[in-house]
Amino acid sequence: MDATAVIETAGLTKRYRGGQLAVDGLDLVVPRGSVFGFLGPNGSGKTTTIRMLMGLIEPTSGVARVLGEPMPRAVGRVLPRVGALIEGPALYGFLSGHDNLVRFDAADPTADPRTRAARIGAALERVGLTAAAGKKARAYSLGMKQRLGLAAALLRPRELLVLDEPTNGLDPQGMREIRALVRELAEDGTTVFLSSHLLDEIEQVCTHVAVMAQGRLLTQGTVRELAASVTGRLAVGTPDTAEAVRVLKEHGVNDLTVRGERVTGELPGTGDLAELNAALVRAGVRVRAFGAERVSLEDAFVALTGEGFDVAG
Ligand SMILES: Nc1ncnc2c1ncn2[C@@H]1O[C@H](COP(=O)(O)OP(=O)(O)OP(=O)(O)O)[C@@H](O)[C@H]1O
Questions:
Q1: Which helix (H) or strand (E) holds 9?
Q2: CA 254, CA 236: separation in Å to the nearest integer?
Q3: Which residues have a Cβ under 8 Å from the Cβ of 20 and sit 6 or more positions away?
Q4: Cβ density class 46-62: b for 16+ within 10 Å, e for less
Q5: Cβ count near 149 (within 10 Å)
Q6: Which atom of ligand 1 is nearest to the CA of 212?
Q7: What distance in Å separates the CA atoms of residue 243 and residue 210, rounded to the nearest whole number?
Q8: In CA terms, which of 9, 191, 219, 275 is 20 to 30 Å from 82?
Q9: Where in this chain does the record put each ABC transporter domain (predicted)?
Q10: Which residues line ligand 1 (CB under 6 A)?
């Protein structure tokens, strides 16, 4: 087992009663200090994995360690060190945001009532809900409810935050707020494990990523490594597309496609890009843009699965 791992699983598997294989032999390593994106389309097994990690359901087989302790066996020791936001916070709509936090804090037998007011004040401040603390939770927007859920998870210092689709259902402004908060928490040294079906979200906030599809892990590593594992394409912007295609083909560029005033092709493995550019210009091609396209996580995902990233549902 990896001593720097905050979460580690080996062969973790869940088959639901009814026979559905939701998670299939998962080997996951979440390094301490990472913002770890757990990416996969709806139904790929993310929530099931998180529920096993948090000791809410038993795995069918395999093992999971969280903060170095076996789950679900050590659930009583582990959960106080973990802040979790799973499937939306359980809030009382008739209580104010502040009083919801009082309730959460009072339900924690290890929380000292004498420091409660200060801790609640700090948590509200942290998520930007101080001004709205007196409002009833049912009057909160979805984004405010998520932030209140995060405040509940932050009532005490945590080594690990586990967030299941924290921006699901939020408007762009709400998403930005949650992402900014995740970044801040990570800067303070908290390891954050968050699931998402949104590639660009993972790209924006995460240092690491694991990609799930149909219960299986396709890959894991740093976001940078994953993007680097896929070669970008050469892209040329020009009104003279036919001539550009001819010259590029002559110079060994494969898989050429033309869309509007843009020609793309496989980046040549050898040879000088500057030379290629010069050849185009020599042939009278008016080159407006020339270069290697940036590879997105989405390109990497398509390369991994051979298909587009399906975000249905
Ligand atoms: N309690 C359950 N009983 C039987 N099957 C289940 C149960 N919960 C989930 N599943 C099935 O297991 C598979 C994985 O579901 P899971 O919720 O873990 O995926 P997910 O990636 O979290 O997707 P979503 O983002 O939609 O929650 C799905 O096919 C789902 O239908």
A1: strand 5-15
A2: 14
A3: none
A4: bbbbbbbbbbbeebeeb
A5: 23
A6: 21
A7: 42
A8: 219
A9: 7-239
A10: 16, 18, 20, 22, 40, 42-48, 197, 313
189, two tokens:
């040294």
Helix (H) or strand (E) holding 52: helix 46-53
2 — pLDDT class (breaks 50, 70, 90): low
Residue nearest to atom 3 of ligand 1 (CA): 16
Query: Looking at ligand 1, which residue's alpha carbon is closest to its atom 24?
Result: 42
Q: Give whole-number Cα distances, 22 to 9, 37, 165, 215, in Å.
A: 15, 19, 17, 5
Contact indicator for 29, 86 with CB cutoff of 8 Å = no
Single pTM value for the model: 0.78
* ipTM of this complex prediction, to 2 decimal places: 0.94
For residues 219 and 212, what is the distance between their CA atoms, to the nearest angstrom?
8
